[in-house]
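User: I'm curious whether this sequence folds into something compact or stays loose and floppy. Could you predict its structure so I can see for myself?
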Amino acid sequence: MATEALVSFAVERLGDKLIQEAKFLKGVSRQADRLHRDLRAMQCFLEEADKKQEEDSRVRNWVSDIREAVYNAEDIIDMFILNAQSLRRNFFLKCGFKKLINRYKVGKKIEALQLGLLDISNRREALGIKNIGEGRSRSAENQMLQGLRRSSPHAEEHVVVGLEKEADELVNQLIGGDLRRRVISLVGMGGIGKTTLAKKVYNHRQVVECFPDCRAWAYVSPDCRPRDVYMQIIKQLVCTSTKDQQVLEMVEKLQEHELGDFLHEHLKEKRYLIVLDDVWSCRDWNCLAKVSSNDPDCLGNVFPDGGNGSRLLLTTRDKDVALHADARSTPQEMQLLSKQKSWNLFCGKAFLDHVDADRYPPDLVQLGREMVDKCNGLPLAIVVLGGLLSRDMSHTEWRKVHDNINAYLAKEGSQTGVMTVLNLSYIDLPSYLKPCFLHLSLFPEDYVISTRKLFLLWIAEGFVLSAEQADQQSMKVTAEVYLNELINRNLIQVVRMSVNARVVECRVHDLMRELAIRKAKEQNFFRTHDIEDPLSSSTSNSSLFSSKCRRQSIYSDMERYASVEQNTPYLRSLLFFNLGHEICRFSQLDFIGKCFKVLRVLDLEGVKVESLPSIVGTLIYLRYLGLRHTGLKLLPLSIGNLRSLQTLDVNNLKQVPNVIWKIQNMRYLYMEGQKYDIPLKIDTLENLQVLSGITFKQWIQNNSSKLTCLGKLKLEGRYELVEGVEFWKSIAKLRVLKSLYLKASDESSFPSLGMDSCPYLSKFDIKGHMQKLSESFQFPPNLSQLTLDSCRLDCDPMPILEKLPKLLTLRLRAESYLGTEMHVSANGFPQLKVLQLFELSKVIKLNIENGAIPWLMQLHCQFSTRISGVDKLSNLVERQPIEMVKKNFGHAVEKNSAVAVEMIGPIFSRWDSTQEKGS
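Assistant: Here's the prediction. I'll summarize afterward.
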């Protein structure tokens, strides 16, 4: 579970507080230090315990006790510091007396907590949990689960829907292509049908004919044991008759490495197909193929490459495993079923007649369709649901399942239930990813999550640790690595990607979200309050939220939530979603500052806020404050007291109060759309990494050389209010700036830009009227991504831009050029890979000379634009017909319009949840 990581984060935070808040801990520092050492000592047992608690309730309870002890320690220290800071402002004698009482009370609490830790340690030994890493490696329950999941190529599904195209492609990969040994991989989330497709292909007539004498299937499992896998293969390839019994007896006596050598010798002269079903990690593949960890490109010595067309077929939930096994082969990523295919599969299982389901009672059909929609295209869930309902065709039974579908999917078949299968993916996660996965449970069903926001929330929660904790710059990079790993493990779905192939939006499959919710509730990680689950007078406050609950996600309206007596004083995160359009009054927000004094994350995005109460400024532990799209016009001056604040995300304020400079820990400041351009001091924020929305005038009034960590900057407003040379000098002082976005107001314009003094700048976006495009030598020398938007240039920009030596991505948008033709000369754009021409309504022709843009992979241009020379672009990866472009982008297209080229591979795709569900 995530306990080991959560406890580690909490213990680290506790250690940081003992250093940073030493002045407030006078009188109890020795006790607090010892408590910290005791907790660190308990950490030593957690890593192994975390792995075992899935199968041992005693270990699970013991781990829960440690988690609660760490939470209690954090709560005690946080509340003591909070009270000490409050009393420090007052010098009256009675306040000094209160300080002594406060120290005495917290000392007693720490002593009691240390006694509790001693009791936990004693119980660990008494329960025999002392040697957690010893004993059986697999519990009987775990062995039973793996036995039930063990696949066989002979148990082929009779009802298979929607895999015809995938099967044909896979067959072609297995029997065709080059003669080198290839590893073909099927990748997808648990229950998506990887094994079903593999069985279908394994038994396909053409595959059987291609590999007539040397074909084997082996189930690997999360608990990979190479010896077991080798024996499965050998029994199918070598010991196929009773006369081979002596060979089998001899083989069974061999050691693991000897079995690998035996298998190699048997395979090296043959053309073979071996299916390895359910490979979980790169390490497992290395163990099975005997690949050296120092040389991952080594083919291994178990599955030889005889140059005769041999193939291995892997099924895995992790894309990294597929790429690691064979970097030359493109993994086949399985997709969820469409709405119609989901219904066809359900009918085949529930009605036992997928041809004519409409002859069944309309009430059952209606209930069935609604339940299928809840499965969101996951074949395993649909099959389990259909099998369950086929046993009883009464309306009463179907209604009962309909109203409790998640519970039925979780328990159906016990060990083979949907949640049990999906849970294997969670168990396999490394400890640092588990809290990140659990955190996704806070978001509503089908919610599209901004990755920018997600990264900042993970950082504020303390889930992201850089290689060097002092290296704050790397935290967003690390958070992105975490996200991509969860995506590759098929726990998160990509919704939208940027032009440079970075994930911009994502979501979680409903059943994966249900799994995250179950795991999160087990650990008091969070609770939700849903508008569809209204508060009743008979419901006690304690039953709504545990007093030790760390996070709350609110889906109901603010007035209803604010009216409930709060019983969670140690709440660390509070997020609001889907609250409608009623304006939230001042008094309704006041309770947040009064009830949640140790809050670390407060996200009010989308809540219509009248004003923000000044009491918010007392939340000294607050790291993240999300106020985007709230309609808020002013921030209270007390915002400057938020000494721990790292992220402030707000937009469309009348003005930003000139107190931001006090927040020394600020790292990510978003404040786009200011109405009034008043002075704003920010040059004291030495930790600032992202600054978005400051005006040109505000910027030039600060000493930019002090912003030594600023890597991303967005300025807006009236550019002519600043002197151009001085402005670019201020930009040049930013030694780590990589991304710059300039947005001029409608009545403003940019003169020629002098950016050659910005050597580290790699991404530049400019929006607004430009009098003239700068010469190529005036651009940053390392510029790799450039966007021109609404620039209204009269001259063709290509002769200048094509000379930028390191440019990889170019986007011209919204009348950035007003001419009719564009021309790219030979040798122009030597490294460009992506070219986008959006809404250039007057451009009718693009000429590309032979030898230009040699590495172009993605091209997107106007439908009415004629392109010459496109046939010479040998690296273009995909061409979509005009009809497809119209469907994807919603433009009006005439059937007889000129040639349009749409080069949008995976990096331009946008996942549409309604389309995915077939509606």
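Summary: Confidence is low (pLDDT under 50) at residues 131-141, 292-298, 531-544, 879-919. Residues 93-126 form the longest helix (34 residues).
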